[in-house]
Design the sequence.
């Protein structure tokens, strides 16, 4: 069974993002992963450029205040997730035109493309549910975000 919480740790969750633009939001989450020694500076720069190019082709803003930027990263040891939240929202060119308040950045390791898609699909299904999004937006700590994710994954 695919479990989102296996790839997300509290230190990779930022409840009050500073970014006000899409590019800055992606960089802020990548900086968080670099600070946690999940990726290095060279990987961060490469990933950021690729994510920006991907966003030019098609936004990962899936609507309802959610974006799920994602990428398979050569040399990455394990799949990792970073979560960012911005209550005011960030313009993200989402499909519904609404600003994004919840960002889930998923970086997958090379050779795990099928698993990466299953993880992405599971997260997208959960995030389609309004009560799940509301719970994440009300969470007061990274541990609470993880607890909410665990609870919903088990249902």
Sequence:
């Amino acid at each position: 069974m695919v479990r989102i919480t296996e790839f997300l740790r509290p230190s990779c969750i930022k409840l009050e993002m500073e970014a006000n633009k899409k590019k800055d939001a992606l960089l802020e989450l990548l900086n968080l992963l670099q600070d946690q020694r999940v990726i290095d500076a060279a990987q961060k720069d490469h990933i950021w450029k690729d994510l920006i190019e991907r966003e030019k082709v098609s936004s990962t803003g899936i609507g309802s205040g959610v974006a799920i930027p994602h990428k398979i990263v050569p040399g990455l040891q394990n799949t990792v997730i970073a979560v960012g939240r911005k209550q005011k929202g960030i313009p993200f060119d989402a499909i519904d035109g609404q600003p994004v308040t919840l960002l889930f950045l998923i970086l997958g390791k090379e050779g795990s493309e099928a698993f990466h898609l299953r993880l992405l699909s599971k997260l997208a299904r959960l995030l389609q549910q309004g009560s799940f999004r509301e719970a994440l937006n009300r969470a007061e700590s990274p541990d609470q975000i993880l607890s909410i994710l665990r609870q919903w994954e088990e249902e």
About this structure: The two ends are 13 Å apart (CA to CA). The CA atoms of residues 119 and 146 lie 16 Å apart. The helical segments are 22-35, 41-57, 113-127, 130-138, 142-154.
